């Protein structure tokens, strides 16, 4: 059986990282190691990780200073011995059958498939389901992946280690949207497949590293997309339709930032630009909220009641 390496970067998650490790160790696929890289945590993370010192399936490394999520993932990948690498956030959980189901899927695929991902569920601290995410993208997703990241959740990804090595690993200079950035490069060279089952639990709480992505926080989205644009500008320009959709969504998020800032004029300008680039219902609805229905705009900005109550 092939060896699978679970990659867990962690930073100041002493209260959660043990759960992630335990979920990896509970996999029904026996040939598995867990690689944890502590990214300079200042809480009790080091002590929690020391509890696994007698388990030879768990390998721990410590960064003496905080280097960021991409550099920490990259170090974990360098340490790993597995033929396959599983991405696992330190506050996420794998269901026991996850790696076995994904390896079964890989066995059905050609070598040009580099990633198998799966569905995920977002839960709160009480274990209550908030939302479910089901996979839909299969095969070649480039250049469409330049527009947005369609392969969530990242903690569901199982990838061939050789594929990650072929594209140069994680970009250690990329602080936001690490999952999106590395998967753009992977999708450029390899195809993707999925297991249509919920195999990952994502813990939703105020301290999520990817909290901006989980909640759709517009400021996070704008910062991430700015970096994607700067790095992949030439590729986007080589695909004009993809570039147009990217620009439309970027303007929409900028408009949402302006709504949060209670700047109606700026919000209107961004939503108008988004609608001009992509006259979809989503963008036209945002434009209408900002221009036609002031009370609905106020609701979106959090000044009064909910949008549904405004509309009756």
Automatic annotation (TrEMBL):
This is Glycosyltransferase. One of its GO terms (molecular function) is transferase activity. SUPFAM superfamilies: Nucleotide-diphospho-sugar transferases (SSF53448). It comes from Halosegnis rubeus. It comes from the Archaea. The keyword Disulfide bond does not apply. Keywords: Transferase. Transmembrane segments: none annotated. InterPro entries: Glyco_trans_2-like, Glycosyltransf_2, Nucleotide-diphossugar_trans. Residues 5-125 form the Glycosyltransferase 2-like domain. PANTHER family: GLYCOSYLTRANSFERASE (PTHR43685), GLYCOSYLTRANSFERASE TAGX-RELATED (PTHR43685:SF11).
